C-alpha cells in the first residue's frame, strides 16, 4: 500500500535536516536552525500519531493543526 502523505513528509523532513545542517555549519545560525529542525520533523510524528487514532473522527482531529 502506498502512503503519499507519509512519503512526502519523510522527504520534507530530509530536506529540513539538510537545511539545518547548512544553517548550522555555513551561517552559524543555531537558534533558528534548531527551531526549523523541530518544526519540520514534527510533521512525520504527527502523521504517525494520527494513524493510530481510535476512530475516524480522532484521526481527523489529530491531522488538524490548531
Name some characteristics of this structure.
66 residues; mainly alpha; 3 helices
| H and E string | HHH
Gyration radius over CA: 14 Å
Judged by helices, strands and strand pairing, the structural class is mainly alpha
Number of strands: 0
Shape: elongated
Verbal overview:
The chain has three helices and no strands. Helix 1 packs antiparallel against helix 2 (30-51) and helix 2 (30-51) runs antiparallel to helix 3. The chain is elongated. The chain is 80% helix and 0% strand. The mean pLDDT is 87. It has 66 residues and is an all-alpha fold.
Topology, element by element:
Elements: H1 4-26, H2 30-51, H3 56-63
